[in-house]
Amino acid sequence: MFSSRLKWNLPLNPLSALLEDKRRAGKRVLDLTESNPTRAGLDYPVERILAALADRRGLLYQPDPRGLVAAREAVAAFYRQRGVEVTPERILLTASTSEAYAYLFKLLADPGCQILTPRPSYPLFEYLAALESVEVVQYPLRYDGAWHIDFPALERAITPRARAIVVVNPNNPTGSFLKREELARLEALAAARDLAILSDEVFADYVWAEDPERVATLVGRGVPALTGGVFSMSGLSKIAGLPQMKLGWIVVSGPQAETGMERLELIADTYLSVATPVQWALGELLDASAEVRSQIIDRTRANLAHLRSALEGASAGVLNAEGGWYSVVQMPRTRTEEEWALELLGAHDVLTQPGFFYDFESEAFLVVSLLTRPEEFAEGARRLRAVL
Known about the structure:
- This protein is of the alpha/beta class.
- The protein has two domains: 14-43 and 289-387, Aspartate Aminotransferase, domain 1 (Alpha-Beta Complex); 46-287, Aspartate Aminotransferase, domain 2 (3-Layer(aba) Sandwich).
- Helices cover 39% and strands 16% of the residues.
- The protein is built from twelve helices and 14 strands.
- Strands 2-9-8-7-6-3-4-5 form an eight-stranded mixed β-sheet, with helices on both faces. Strands 10-11-14-13 form a four-stranded antiparallel β-sheet, with helices on one face. A two-stranded parallel ribbon has the order 1-12.
- Strand 10 and strand 11 (326-330) form a beta hairpin.
């Protein structure tokens, strides 16, 4: 009766089951996985946000499949402030980055085609692809003190069914940015194999240190030979810390940008998913977002410094990262990462995520969110050190 796109009856994994038991028992758990900015104790510019949403134009329904021109102009202005020129005609609004992926998979791939995604990375790629009847093929990122793309492995992973390469910039959870030399190789490879590049840039504004070799965005990349095109994604969820506003976007670049936009417009016209009030509010929300981003950058830097200090001299270490909201801790291989996570939660009431949630290839890694409230993060880091 139901489709077989997903495995519908997934049992709770041991960590989730233990967490449910803890919460039913009324235990206070230090959640070092908190990724919801609206629950992280940030100081939002409440009056500005509410006033922006009170715009009376939001009461009139005038759907535009690409998104209201005023909203797309606000996105273009957002990039202009960062020294990147893009026209509103190359921008299409979506309800989220997840929906942007769905649109792009529809645009680029037929059922049974393949999309290449990084490993480790965002754990929902397989679900998003499966819902479009598309197959995910992973290519590895390697760590040698810094993260980088394993290009020989990426080339081997490309088959005649491949349609696009996904890059997450910076990657979640490794916090690694694409470098200029990597981008040149990636563009050459995509051009030679007639592949599109999908660039997920939701964490791009969260940078901890400057690096002239870092690629800040792929918006506006118009390499003539790259006929598959470049599709850059972002949105309010991370930029403004407002996931509940449900507004993201795709910026289309490349020699077939006009055709790509026309076909994306047809897809979007089928759904018309972005609410009118948030589109009219977008300019003000993006202006106000600087206050929230500043807080998040300060917090993630401080929590990362605290974590490094807490684990200094310990048998575990913090892997180098450049930005984002997460940190990866390499634990001793005396236990599996799942055993470490279960020990921390079961005996010390500290919730972390094992690396296999993000498809780490080897043991033993734990992933923690640097968005966690500072006092909770500090106590969690202290307990993590005590376990070691």
